[in-house]
Amino acid sequence: MKVSRIAAAGAVAGTAVLALSAPAFAHVTVQPEGEAAKGGYAVVNFKVPNERDNASTTKVEVSFPGDHPLASVMPQPVQGWDIKVTKSTLDKPIESHGRKITEAVSKVTWTADGDGIEPGFFQKFPVSVGALPEDTDQLVFKAIQTYSNKEVVRWIEVPQEGQEEPESPAPVLELSEAEDDHAHGASGASSEEASDDTAPAAEASASGSSDTTDTTARVLGIVGIVVGAAGVAYGVLAGRRRGTV
């Protein structure tokens, strides 16, 4: 009886844990392929899971941050989906590669031309973005998910540090610190120069080592022959002495 009660309690606890953790896995999220460094470019994936058992996801809309507009936004084609890129005029133009940008992508919409994301599946929507801002640690993308039964789920609540995760959190892209390219370049140049300078010395050293090895081998070979001959002579002499005695 005790074992049965413990097993039952364990099952209930396990079910509760799964029930509480399930929404965390069902959120629309955004993750970079590799790193998303400040000031650089990155390919990010918007991951959209289907939360429903009786409907498919047929439309996904992602709004791009207006407070940190991105000069370049290029979605990758996704089989079975039509893509629409919406641009808006910026309140404040931004500089990118010496050019003044007056408009930027404000929204990307994916609409299924087939079954969409069916129950039990998820879909990734890749987008190339840049240049990423240098004055913030994260970018917030608000998303809207539409199902085949006309239900609409708005992933637009901005998570706040130190507070519980909201029920429908917006996808957040964490930005990493930019690497010092100049320092890496200088280090690379020094390494190449050092490699060029040390190459002849290394070759000479290898050649000298090879010559020394060959000489040593020859000497050892000669010594071996001499020792072998001496051994044979000793054996012959010993045999003669025994025969004489």
TrEMBL record:
InterPro entries: YcnI-copper_dom (IPR012533), YcnI-like_sf (IPR038507)
Low complexity bias locations: 185-214
Domain YncI copper-binding: 27-175
Keywords carried by this UniProt record: Membrane, Signal, Transmembrane, Transmembrane helix
Record's signal peptide: 1-26
Keyword Ubl conjugation: no
Classification via Pfam families: DUF1775 (PF07987)
Regions that span the bilayer: 219-237
Span list, region Disordered: 178-214
Protein name per its UniProtKB record: Uncharacterized protein ycnI
Organism: Streptomyces leeuwenhoekii
